[in-house]
Amino acid sequence: MLCYSLGGRTDDRVLKQLCDAKDTKGLLEEFCSQTGAETTRYQPFANLANHFLNSRKPSGLTFCRNDPKIIQGSVAERKPDVVLVSTESPHLEYGPELPKGPTVGFYWDHVHCSVEFKVKATELEKEAEAVTSASYSLSVPSHGYTGGTADLQMKSISNEDSRKRAAGSPPSGQPQAKKSDHRADHSEERRQSAFYALEMLSHGRYRSHVINITIQDTSMRLWFYDRVGVIMSAAFSILDLALFGRVMFAMGSLPPRGWGFHDFISYGSFTHVRPQPTGSRHSQRQTNKPALPPVFDHESKAPRATTSPEPFTGTVIRFHNGVVVTLKEIVYRQYALIGRGTCVIRGEVKGHSDLSGKDLMVKISWPSQWRTSEVDFLEAAHTYGLNQNDEHILGHIPQVLLHQDFYSTADGPRGKCGFENDDHRVLRVIVMDSYLPMTQLHTASEFTQVIVDVVKWFWLGHRALHEGPKILHRDISMNNIMFCRGRTTG
After folding, report:
1. Which of 49, 74, 432, 440 could hold 398 in an S-S bridge, CB 3.0 to 4.6 Å?
2. Does any domain span residue 290?
3. How far apart are CA 398 and CA 480, in angstroms?
4. Closest CA to 458 of 437, 481, 434, 436
5. Which domain holds residue 101?
6. Per-position DSSP letters for 402-427, written without gaps between them
7. Where does the record place Basic and acidic residues bias (predicted)?
């Protein structure tokens, strides 16, 4: 089933040659021979994975140990054991032909995939003995393998916990039967992986989904997270080099969209080292410590250029009508793994004479595709206000300047894998005029004027929309009351 999310055709002849190669066996033995602390397996796994990942052609990506570095860009102090990052990342340090890890902490928008380990010492010794005596015979079919990683069965677990509770589990807060250590370990591993996906979707580049890896001893799972829920693969053994190799081959062939990055959003390259963000617990803890030394280019020995920690600054969104929107700083971004994932960013428009030079707001979100679009509501309200020549409506609702639906989860891996889910979501981008939140009111007179306008709107405009086009706003809150300085209509 993973052929849709990982993709790529596997040449079994090449795969068998690679699995039988002496250096491959050596890398596997090195991985399994680390029977001490869990951390001793991080880089050996990265070396084995990279051996397959880039064996056919350079993928532009590399696995490397991240622990104990904290990933930057969030106040949450999370440090995945191993991460998959771009080989262009200037935070990446290389040893003799192998990535050693970050010189300073990566940012979440550098991370394509995270790997979380959980190891039992008793199991490691058994695995090491098994690898030492293994013959490495591979069950690769002679007819040629064309299904990517279709061997791996996938299971949607979006509502698994609620189903289990409904099936008779005691509610939260009541005593429960003690679970086995293996189950507890798996739960912790699963939780950590979800946390990393949360950070990537909330603090990294805007993406539709995340693919992560969890490893317990030598048992490996793939996890797919999107705005609808979570899908997990069946567990498989890293000792099954044929299957492990297919997974790594597929990962190495994924285009940016396969990792969840959208082709209508153009990001800059990884040519900069960004300063550590201020305001986080991590940066505050480092306040009394000496500053990190500057990072130098390997060839010129000159410090690399730094830029803002904003992941969207300079990013470009291209609409189908040819209009180009350049993004600036983030105004609001929802911290969520599942749901709308709303992100509001300042922007400016190029290629549209009426909008060029205006201060605009760009809203990117994943609403349910079965719900009526807010664009439809706003346009219906605006049309009604024009027909009625009602300034109480026209002066109090934002006008949609640009909008487009770019992508649906039904068109991605979730839909193609055949998971029936009524909550498919659509990636929607809306461009509107820029307004200010009420927290930006500076004087009592400004505050009074805004409150008067709000009362007028609620009594006249809100009522008119309810009685006319049958629109009822059911979420009148502080976040939905904004103003434009210099205008008395709100």
Report:
1. 432
2. no
3. 11
4. 481
5. 12-160+183-261
6. EEEEEEEGGGSHHHHTT---TT-BEE
7. 178-189
